[in-house]
């Protein structure tokens, strides 16, 4: 996890520097960014209402009060250009290069094939699960349920971190995309931020009991391996509200919560959103 000098540090109040003339930009031209300019980082921005925002050639959703959000992938190294066209015709622009991180790589050899590759008879079920999760991530609206910050969704021992990767019998597997919190089955899981439930499935092949909370702008928390779901699709939940219980369902080796966050198709590191307090009870 990056140190405090990397964890943004850019609670920026940046003024336009790209307009001709020596006069400073007006107060209305302020753009704020808060987040981690780092691989796996999530950045929250605010621009004057009525602005348009682009990350490279991608238009970002802007709420009525000017909030927007974007993230960096685990392996991203390229410099991205963030451009804000302001209502007064001025343009604010910054080049953002994510800082590199080192991720844990573990080699495990001698495993039986069944523990590495799912059997063929499960492929259709896995495909159907993928369709459900993809559909649940398609929602886009301008809610900004993240603006009250984030809290730990469960209390327990951190047993897995974002970006780590296993090489099983010499074959690299997908990186781990979440933050694992190990705790006994039945331990409460609460919403780390407010949002709307977009997926509530009790038994998916890989992830077992699975719950999605959409926080707005395509920013989605996923909770995996749950033993019990306490909410249903379409329900709005408040920050801190109990939504599920920890379990060991799906392909889990023990009871834990696997918490993942996507913004659109970009998988980011949930731990970067949290304070440095000890999550154990």
Q: Describe it for me?
A:
Helix content is 5%, strand content 37%. It has two domains: 12-96, Immunoglobulin-like; 115-161 and 176-273, Glucose Permease (Domain IIA). The strands form four sheets. Strands 10, 13, 14, 15, 16, 17, 18, 19, 20 and 21 form a ten-stranded antiparallel sheet that branches. A four-stranded antiparallel sheet has the order 1-2-3-6, with no helix packed on it. The chain contains one helix and 21 strands. It starts with 11 loop residues before the first strand and ends in a 13-residue tail after the last strand. It is mainly beta and 281 residues long. Mean pLDDT is 87; it is low at 1-28.
Brief characterization of the structure:
This protein is mainly beta and 281 residues long. It has one helix spanning 123-136; strands at 12-14, 31-35, 42-46, 52-55, 58-60, 67-71, 80-85, 91-96, 105-108, 157-160, 165-168, 171-172, 178-182, 188-190, 195-204, 208-214, 219-229, 236-237, 242-246, 256-263, 266-268.
Task: Please describe the topology of this protein.
Layout: E1 12-14, E2 31-35, E3 42-46, E4 52-55, E5 58-60, E6 67-71, E7 80-85, E8 91-96, E9 105-108, H1 123-136, E10 157-160, E11 165-168, E12 171-172, E13 178-182, E14 188-190, E15 195-204, E16 208-214, E17 219-229, E18 236-237, E19 242-246, E20 256-263, E21 266-268
Tell how many strands the DSSP assignment holds.
Answer: 21
- How does the helix and strand content classify structurally? mainly beta
For the record, the CATH class of the largest domain is Mainly Beta
CATH architecture identity of the largest domain: Distorted Sandwich
Using only CA atoms, what is the Rg? 20 Å
**Fraction of residues in H or I helices:** under 10%
Largest sheet: 10 strands, antiparallel
Please tell me what the overall shape is: globular
Helices and strands, in N-to-C order?
EEEEEEEEEHEEEEEEEEEEEE
How many helices in DSSP terms? 1
β-strand amount = 35-45%
Which regions have little confidence, pLDDT < 50, spanning 5+ residues?
1-28
Rounded mean pLDDT score: 87
At CATH level 3, the topology of the largest domain is Glucose Permease (Domain IIA)
CATH superfamily of the largest domain: Glucose Permease (Domain IIA)
- What count of structural domains? 2
- Oligomeric description of these chains: single chain
